[in-house]
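A protein record pairs a chain with a discrete description of its three-dimensional fold. The following entry can be read in just this way.
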Amino acid sequence: MNYIARLQEELADTKAALAAQAEAIQEFRVHLVGDKFAGFEADGGRKDWIAVADVNAWLARIVEAGA
């Protein structure tokens, strides 16, 4: 395979990885604006908290999407 063809293939792979990561980021954004984090609890507490483990899981998912 010549140099230009190899570069074109690498570019296509990189674009696909970036698109997959962008899709995973968009899914995370949709998750964050969902009902789980909107409004208040029955006891008056806020519902806009998210666990660090959940954020780390989403970040790992985003990284894996680009791999």
Q: What stands out?
A: The longest helix spans residues 3-32. The helical segments are 3-32, 52-65.
